[in-house]
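ARCHIVE CARD
Drawer: 12
Card no.: 0347
Subject: one protein chain, sequence and derived structure
Cross-reference: see card 0346
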Amino acid sequence: MTLINKKFTVANGNKVGYLEAGEGFPLILLHGRDALMSSEQWRLNIPALAGFSHVYSLDMLGYGESDLPLDGYTFDTFVEMIEGFMESLDIPQADLCGQSAGGWFAALYAWKYPHRVRKLVLVGNAGANLKGPAAPTEWTPPEMDFIKERFYWAWADNVEVTEQMIQKAYDLARRPGRGESWLSLIKATHDIQEREKYLLLDKLPDVHAPTLIIWGSNPSAIGLEHAHSQHAILPNSRIVIVENGGHSVQGIKPREFERITIQFLKESS
């Protein structure tokens, strides 16, 4: 059984929680932007990935058990959080893997800090679509039935969702400042001028790290055309479409995701 430890560090003055497991070259996992996301999004995949890599799955700023700033969010906030995290643990270079908005942040990091990224994995990532979904304007802490539904959306039957897991998510959603922090974060990352400034279609031609794009054949959130548009402009990329992988391939088709990703990471650059 793979030992997965929950730890904390300080990045740019903010507490950042993360799951850690395995040995080898560092692999940093970045979750999506849904209000219930956290480092736990990747727990299903960590045992397999930790067989090859030293895995760090982050609670992004404003999520999980990391700090909840009430304002000041920009896309660069998350890029610099990744940089601060690596500095705090003295990680000189890493592989990055991000899903949805986490993939957007990972790609921006690879663009801004190319010497810090060996390989990049983008899973159903945002960032090629200028206009996102409508931004929520109110925060209502999710009830347990809704949490269970969202977990099923992320993992299908691949994870036994326990009452303990639901209770933890329920409690985290009720941390002081959680609603204000999330609404501020969402407002900033939905701002059309901010999105245009950090649009990946303008950045990816300058990202030269070997990149694997993984997409489900039936994405529910970000269309398949965005996978192909990114592949077309990424100089050193390949694309894998996973049948019925949905938006969260790592959760819906975990064994396929792990096999494809580990094979990619093992290859010499």
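Annotation on reverse: The radius of gyration is 17 Å. The CA atoms of residues 129 and 166 lie 32 Å apart.
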